[in-house]
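Quick bug: Oxysterol-binding protein output formatted oddly.
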Amino acid sequence: SDHLENIYGYLMKYTNLVTGWQYRFFVLNNDAGLLEYFVNEQSRHLKPRGTLQLAGAVISPSDEDSHTFTVNAASGEQYKLRATDAKERQHWVSRLQICTQHHTEAIGKNNPPLKSRSFSLASQGSANSPGVQRRPSQNAVSFFSVGHHRLPTGKRVPIMQPDHLVDVREMMSQAEGQQRDLIRSIECLPVSGHLTSLDQDLLMLKATSMATMNCLNDCFHILQLQHASQQKGSLPAGTGISWLDPKISLANHFKNGAAQNFPAEINKPASVREEQSAAEPCQLTREPEEINPDEELEDISDDKEDDLGAVEEQRSVILHLLSQLKLGMDLTRVVLPTFILEKRSLLEMYADFMSHPDLFIAITNGSTPEERMIRFVEYYLTSFHEGRKGAIAKKPYNPIIGETFHCSWRMPKSDVATDAGSNFSAHSPSEQATKDLEGQTEMDYYTVKFVAEQVSHHPPVSGFYAECVERKMCVNAHVWTKSKFLGMSIGVTMVGEGLLSLLEHGEEYTFSLPCAYARSILTVPWVELGGKVNINCVKTGYSASINFHTKPFYGGKLHRVTGEVKQNTTNTVVCRVQGEWNSVLEFTYSNGETKCVDLTKLSVTRKRVRPLEKQGPFESRRLWQHVTESLRDGDIDKATEHKRALEERQRNEERLRAETETPWCTKYFLKEGDGWVYHKPLWKTVSAAQTQQTDIN
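Here's what came back:
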């Protein structure tokens, strides 16, 4: 009781994607067991803007940083809050946990366990019980007793006590049994006829019933955590509520004719047997290889993903897969159907973000730090449109560990903006995007080289690096793709950081990547970007903040992006940007000038790639060539066969390394701290060359 002091102060509260974080004045009322907040301290005498009942709540420090924490009330309401530093967060968390424990225990003492209720499933679950004798006039709502009932004014909903968790578990066990019976009944139906096991309504029923049970299990898990906090005191720092593992193995649930039955080994094509054979030993393939750009040819493939094709035909398989997933589930280890794949690897997708090399090279041509930061923002925002292949959301291949991708771009020097004018002035219309470099010497164009490597399988981490030696600039990045199931969409968080180095100016720009979402996965899937990214240059003091806005539930525009470039020392905004990241962007500068850029009309420089016969066995296009060819031919079964062979080989190699305790050897990237860095970055080679020149002089 000595620690039950009322505390108050300012915290940041997360509202939504549009509003973001806002400062609010919070008051912890220990006597009432309430957390209240006001717009500011001056309005404290007014009615609170919001109130949380702390009895039964869970206070969880966030693992995303040292300042953030969440308050999860028993009612289901949540506050996501942020303190100014780790010390202040600990102060609030400890006081909130003490208050929560005190009032939760008080409720338990003042409210003895309730008597068994006549409406419990335990007393109604038997087949002979009158409660389950359904009359023909009953509908589903009345049968399951689902509805909204208004409580008498002034009465509160009783909070369920830990003593009743045994009753809840018994009810849920019976509900799970009934749900399993439902699934079996559907799966026992014939695959053809008037009512089949592949009926879309029945598949949707399977999906929703499974999702409902998974959701109930998660809620029960939260109740168990609260029970533990009551018995053992407040939860230890860092405790959070994690999603439970799926109760049913996905691998065993491709039934109803959707199972992927592969032919026996003797009937497999030679290409599949080759994919399943053991790869070359690590030490033979892990030596870095210097790629000669002269061996690379302009890429003529054009695999736009604008056709639903097999996605429409395989909708029943998608529904069946969804019935095995649950909200928040990590999809990293889930094998998704082949027909939703793009015809390229994720590593090649990262390369396609570099399809405007003229804008990339033009960054270092900026005459001032301000102009260079603005040019980088312009390049950054124009990269996402071409990185997506068409409007349909399909998934690139998950790279195999050790997989690499190489390419380059040749850019005529005359097409790169050099003065302080528009960064886009050198662009020709899109129909003239393929530039003719025949007859030009090496002195007439710049070369941008790109290499990417899958450096880790679990977690899936990719490293990529690009450089223009002539302009002494390079970019290094590592990305960990974390994908989650969100109901009718899939979210992918791009965890990692990139570093752009302009060696001529001694400047380094750090940047992050937005989250990506595949929406409407049951109808026409489409891609949306969301989240806030930051670009910073410590040396010059310039920074940029860019918001990718997801579409609100009602109204609003798709693919909206806003941002601003600031001089941190003076807090002066020197450029603002708004528009859509896949169509038109409008830049407004500090001098009042504005510029609109239509991304659909920007010229695209085709990348140059070595022919398949010159590529190594772990290079993306050669590694996935049989999967890609089968997808182009529309042969989904054959593509699945080749994909499965590659994945089996990867699992076998991983198992062998674990048994022999042999670490994986990367080829081009080295682990440095939490990130991955190219083994021979330009900043090292330029520095070494300058040192050597100094020694000669």
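Actually, after a second look the formatting is fine. The chain has 16 helices and 26 strands. Closing.
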